[in-house]
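queue> pop job 88
queue> type: inverse folding (structure -> sequence)
queue> payload:
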């Protein structure tokens, strides 16, 4: 049996330090990884980064920090279940360590810029030609390997197993022709990427089992808790859908298949309609809009709890194929729950208009800081750390990547405040110190 806490195992090796641990430190290598992630400023800033709707609108909404904590809880529970029920199969996969999964879950959203996917798309569109684009997952990997500090050398020096588990998309840009818009690391982190991927897998594009668990935990948490948030906020007509109101269901599914019509691998409409109907009949008890009564609140909690357990139980280890297997019915259920948020929230006119404004903010910040990075007299726009980084390079490409690091590492209040100052809308105090 493989001892996943044995520091002599290759999966527990670190790239920049010996695999041992400080005297008196009883934590496993992966537990130390988890703690290093929790104590970074990159993790703390997620409290001010949007999940779907800004948490400033109401405390009911999840932000990236609360989402990450819940993903970590689900991921850990799932890993512990597999180790407990299929220990030999887990060993045959090369090991499933709940600490590794939890650490990867906590790290998975570190690279999300302010305003989430809106800014991610804008930064990518604006930098594709110059520096090879921007991707939130690749930015997360860059943070844990280079930008977050454990020491002056930079990076958290995580174990190979944890680094590998963070790679939801274990390839570089344009390597995987089937997913050109997603990748897991930039060329600038190629050495760290190569070190992480040395853990091995059956396919060059296959995530490790622990990365697969992290990814499913993310999907589960996102689908269930976004549904909870927006039903409570009055945005999801779950009462109409649960009562099988034909007009509401037809409009919803028409929108789902309008949005996904170009995806060759998307589920057939009759299949998702059947799955959604069964899901509502089996789990949903609310027959009216949410008003916050005690009965509704307790019923909603029971529903989300049951769904989380259902989706955890959907995962097993396929001993024949030696892979993580997810029940197809539950995959369909998670897929259709995600579509609720797209139809009734993300593509709603109010949020669509807000996204256009957020794109302008990101574009303005990018243009301003890129221009300032080219002239030493304008480096005072940058905080000391970024000024040092820019001052140490003559490469235009590296300067732009540093500027992207700055913007992607802002909280949403920082981005809004910086934009307001640039527009002259709200001049800051001359004594105000910006620390990043």
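queue> result:
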């Amino acid at each position: 049996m493989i001892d996943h806490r044995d520091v002599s195992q290759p999966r527990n090796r670190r790239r920049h330090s010996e695999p041992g641990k400080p005297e008196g430190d009883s934590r496993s290598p992966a537990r130390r990884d988890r703690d290093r992630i929790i104590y970074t400023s990159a993790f703390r800033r997620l409290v001010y980064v949007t999940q779907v709707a800004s948490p400033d609108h109401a405390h009911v909404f999840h932000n990236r920090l609360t989402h990450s904590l819940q993903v970590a809880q689900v991921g850990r529970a799932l890993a512990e279940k597999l180790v407990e029920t299929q220990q030999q199969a887990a060993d045959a996969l090369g090991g499933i360590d709940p600490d590794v999964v939890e650490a990867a879950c906590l790290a998975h959203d570190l690279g999300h810029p302010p305003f989430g996917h809106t800014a991610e798309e804008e930064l990518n569109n604006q930098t594709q030609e110059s520096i090879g684009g921007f991707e939130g997952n690749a930015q997360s990997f860059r943070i844990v390997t280079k930008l977050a500090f454990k020491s002056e050398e930079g990076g958290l020096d995580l174990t190979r197993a944890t680094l590998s588990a963070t790679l939801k998309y274990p390839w570089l840009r344009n390597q995987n022709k089937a997913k050109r818009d997603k990748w897991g690391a930039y060329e600038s982190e190629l050495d760290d990427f190569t070190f992480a991927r040395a853990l091995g897998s059956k396919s060059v594009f296959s995530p490790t089992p622990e990365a697969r668990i992290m990814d499913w935990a993310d999907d589960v948490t996102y689908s269930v808790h976004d549904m909870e948030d927006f039903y409570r906020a009055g945005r999801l007509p779950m009462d109409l859908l649960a009562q099988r109101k034909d007009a509401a269901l037809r409009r919803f599914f028409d929108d789902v298949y309008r949005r996904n019509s170009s995806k060759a691998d998307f589920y057939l409409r009759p299949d998702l309609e059947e799955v959604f109907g069964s899901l509502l009949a089996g789990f949903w008890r609310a027959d009216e809009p949410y008003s916050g009564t005690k009965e509704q609140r307790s019923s909603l909690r029971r529903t989300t709890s049951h769904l989380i357990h259902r989706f955890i139980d959907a995962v097993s280890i396929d001993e024949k194929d030696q892979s993580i297997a997810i029940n197809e019915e539950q995959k369909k259920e998670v897929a259709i729950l995600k579509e609720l948020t797209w139809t009734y929230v993300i593509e709603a006119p109010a949020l669509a208009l807000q996204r256009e404004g957020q794109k302008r903010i990101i574009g303005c910040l990018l243009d301003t800081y890129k221009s300032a990075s080219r002239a030493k007299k304008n480096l005072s726009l940058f905080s000391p750390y970024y000024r040092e980084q820019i001052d140490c390079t003559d490469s235009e490409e590296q300067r732009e990547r540093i500027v992207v690091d700055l913007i992607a590492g802002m909280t949403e209040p920082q981005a809004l405040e910086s934009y307001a100052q640039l527009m002259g809308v709200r001049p800051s105090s001359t004594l105000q110190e910006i620390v990043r």
